[in-house]
Amino acid sequence: MHDLFDQHAPLNMKGDSSVLKLLIGPVVDLVSTTLNNRAAVKQAEHTRKLQVIQNEASWDATQAANAHNSMKDEWFVFLLSIPLIGAFIPEARPYIEDGFLCLDEMPEYYKGFLAAAIAASFGIKGLAKFKK
Questions:
Q1: Cα(74)–Cα(80) distance, rounded to whole angstroms?
Q2: What's this model's pTM, rounded to 2 decimal places?
Q3: Block means of pLDDT (10 residues each) for the chain, length 132 residues?
């Protein structure tokens, strides 16, 4: 009977902690790895966003520096102002209307190139703000 009773005796505490470590250790490692991976992803996203902001600032600075040596902005403003001013001159209105009809018939790729040239002149950000 003593043997039967001993079989049902509680395990000693040292044995219990070893078993617990064996069971819980992999779970703790998995949770730790998951949390570390999430933190790494968040850090990578943050780094990418900072890089985008820095690149935009660099592009803006380059565009501003180049604008000082260029007349293209003034040239496009002048060209785009002609129809605006001509709309108030009755004798010029038929020519302006015919010009826009002619532009409407131009191939799409030409209109795309023209839009890209104007966007590059004023800055692509400026065009995005204009479209809003």
A1: 10
A2: 0.40
A3: 49 60 79 89 90 77 66 81 93 94 94 85 61 55
Q: 100 near 82, Cβ under 8 Å?
A: no
Burial of 108 (0-12, 13-18, 19+ CB in 10 A): exposed
Alpha-carbon distance of 10 to 38, in angstroms, equals 41
pLDDT of residue 66: 65
Quick one: tokens of 71?
Answer: 């007349």
Q: Which residues contact 123 (CB under 8 A, 6 or more apart)?
A: 60, 63
State the amino acid at position 82 in one-letter form.
I
CA–chain centroid gap for 74, Å, is 30
